[in-house]
Design a protein that fits this description.
Layout lengths: L2 H19 L6 E5 L19 H10 L6 E5 L24 E5 L8
């Protein structure tokens, strides 16, 4: 083997080892929709949950590392009690808890 081929093999092995040993980061995305949903739903895009309080409970009960995004569909949400996010995760500047609208007011449909 030529020296170049040996170096390419070593580089490939190093990349494979780094890829395998790097911890995987899973982003949690929860969807909330007040009209077409139920709080028994898992909060996926096709089966959103109904209330923001349910989304907060799911975030608080989850201990998975990584960022969390709560996407809220347009609608009227009644909040009759305090909603607190008190989870056990340690968020960082790169892995944050984000609450955002699925459709912004200035977006064209």
């Amino acid at each position: 083997m030529k020296i170049r081929e040996i170096l390419n093999h070593r580089l490939f092995i190093i990349v494979v080892i780094i890829t395998i040993t790097t911890p995987m980061v899973f982003a949690e995305v929860l969807y909330v929709d007040d009209t077409n949903s139920d709080d028994a739903n898992p909060g996926t895009e096709d089966k959103p949950m109904r209330t923001i309080a349910r989304a907060a409970a799911m975030v608080n009960n989850s201990k998975e590392p990584g960022p969390t995004t709560i996407k809220i569909e347009p609608g009227v949400y009644v909040i009759d009690k305090t909603v607190t996010f008190e989870n056990q995760r340690s968020y960082t500047q790169d892995a944050r808890l984000t609450i955002e609208a699925t459709i912004l007011p200035d977006e064209r449909n």
